[in-house]
Amino acid sequence: MNSRIYTFKKKEILKEEVDFLYLFFDNGDGVEIDKSELVDLSFKTYERLVYDNQGYAPVAANGFIKLKISDIKKIRRRNHRLADNKAFVTDRKGYVENRCLTENGINKIWFFNDLNWHYPLLCSVLSRMEKEYLVLEFIPNPTMGAFDSDTHKIMLGALNKDYVSEIMIDCENCESFQVYDEEILDINLTMDKQLVWGASEIYRNVTSGYIILRLNDKYDDRQHHLFVKNATVRAITNRLCGRKGVAICDVCHLYVEYLFPGYGGNRNKECFEIADVKSDEEIEALTKIEEETCSAAYYYESGYCKKLNGGKIIIAFGKNAEKTISKFE
Fold first, then answer.
1. Is the pTM value of this prediction over 0.90?
2. Cα separation of 20 and 26, whole Å?
3. Which of 100, 138, 162, 197 has the fewest CB atoms within 10 Å, counting from its CB?
4. Beta-bridge partners for 170
5. 154-204: per-residue pLDDT in tens?
């Protein structure tokens, strides 16, 4: 199957769960809004998801966000990137309100929770003042279709190595390294039809399958964050497969960069989550043991990695990873 429809249960954003939020404008500017400034919110989103950044995001169909913008110093010092920084610092309240009212250029909002995870919302906004409140009203887009369902959906193609420029392979301990298209011999991954919310966008979730690599030391400028100085073939092989040539896999994300039409090195990126082979119940039980004993009990495990003949490495995902590897030995 070359393509399939992926789904994601719509998430309701509750005011009490928002720790802070970001307003982004269509010129790339952004300003942080404190939770004390959030008065009320209510909106619906379209069924269709839209590609954004390195994942997928919902689009606002209607509704509003009501804010009471403050100018107190502690909020004025919050994160922001604005074209007219001097005007913002001088009068934050006046600047934010005037920017929203005169330009109506807000096209994206991020809602952050207390874990610093953010949930994205793409939008078109028409702003107005209601006494002391700044109201951001979401404007419908008739080309987006229906919004009454409680489920998002999007049609996506299979991950085809012929379209891949490079992959940043990310491990659970935050080590990562880059592999290039010439080093990727095969990709055959199975995704859950249910998408997942990562720490930012909505992603596809890999449940099984494999990637076969043959790394080359000619790439001496390889990007990496490894606990070694140089990301040599030997260093990466040892990181994945251990010194015995086979090890439990802790790869948790694949950041895939696709080839894209046009000149100038245009790229399209997508992040894939890798599922832990343990069930949610198993993870919860192990986490509880850690809390009770103050010792490590839970370790992330997404499959197995093994060295193959001819300088190849296989990264196999899922509960049947060992069986998958046996087919290539």
1. yes
2. 20
3. 162
4. 176, 253
5. 999 999 999 999 999 999 999 999 999 999 999 999 999 999 999 899 999
